[in-house]
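User: Before I run my own analysis I want an independent prediction to cross-check against. Here's the chain; please return only the structure tokens and, at the end, one sentence I can use as a sanity check.
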Amino acid sequence: MKRFFPFFKKRNLYKHCALMLVFSLWLSMLTTPARLLAGETPAPATTETPSNTPATSASPSAANTQTPNDASESLTGGPAISAEAAVLIDNHSGRILYEKNKDKELIPASITKIMTLLLIFEGLEQGQYKLSDEVSVSEYASSMGGSQVFLESGETQTVDTMIKCISIASANDAAVAMAEFVAGSEEAFVDKMNQKAAELGMEHTHFMNCNGLDDSIESGHYSSAYDVALMSQALVMNYPAISDYSTVWMDTIIHKTKKGESEFGLTNTNKLIRTYQGITGLKTGSTSKAKYCLSATANRDGINLTAVIMAAPNHKVRFTEAASLLDHGFANCIAYTEKADDIPLTPQVIAGGTKSQIIPRVEKNFSYVLCGDEKNQTPKREISYRPKLAAPIKEGEVIGNVTYTLGEQEIGSLPIVAAETIETAKYIHILYKLLQRICCDKTAEQ
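Assistant: Structure tokens:
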């Protein structure tokens, strides 16, 4: 005990008084630890206009790390569209920048495969299988007509090759083979497709198969331009690796069957990948009933867009009108970004911990696409913290938020997390802090 009271060695009276003082302080601390261990109040929320100006430095992956809020259509005018339905959305926020009959239920044809690909990539992310895993082709899968790569019953191809066939050549047989591989049967896979559609808010969509072959509204297989945009957004923003497949113009696969090996050429059905700057995908579709459909995704200077064309009169129109929609978005929008390191954060008081303050951090950049009249405005930032922070707090735990507004509307937010772990103070820590204060006060008096 002497080492805790070096300045009370000479007089037992002083020692006893000090012990009584420590004991009384300890009792009071049990009810008001914040007053003794912190002694400060949390900082109020602060609102300010970030000093940085609209920029174009954010990458798609960095920009896709915030919580965006939906906003109403922010662009007026737009190109004349002859297709039955069309929509243009900003992939970062999901905002609709242009629409024509966006909710009209139409036949999607092979753009159905966007959902098929989304579920395949989800399975990869969840570790259900790997790109190198072998997929066996069933007799049913090999019987698919329409766009195909002529897979034979009993043939095996890797998951990677199957994705290539679906993305580049729009192969119906590969889509069914993957559906069976992922879910056990096409029917079970279609159930997953409809479940995912519901999760994404696709209110005007219902699937009956995984490839869009021989579909019809009467049979219960339909979608809308806006719903196609929603599943396209989910695919390109959550799994940007899809562009490694969907932007390939020509490739080959090797058939391995009982007859031996043979090479088969693949040619992309999306002509925009050869002509449009910043194109990242995504998928075409056409049948005599559906006419010509396209979901085109592109990224330029931190702006990530999806343009959907449904029921265009011919294949040339679907490409020119999709390109016109993308041009409309890029011409009227700019990317605003604020890097996480540029957000001013201050240490926050924490009660009952082994330390009196906790260091906050923001782990992600904020990005927002300013369109139309918004380009003349600068977002405002508000920083707020949880009231009465108290130990224990683990590193990475959310302790506050950075909220961005434009005018009166909230446009997004970022979580503020703890940059360190602070455990609950034990009695020895409490006594040590109290003794430190006593020592400091004694030194100050001398």
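Sanity check: The two ends are 23 Å apart (CA to CA).
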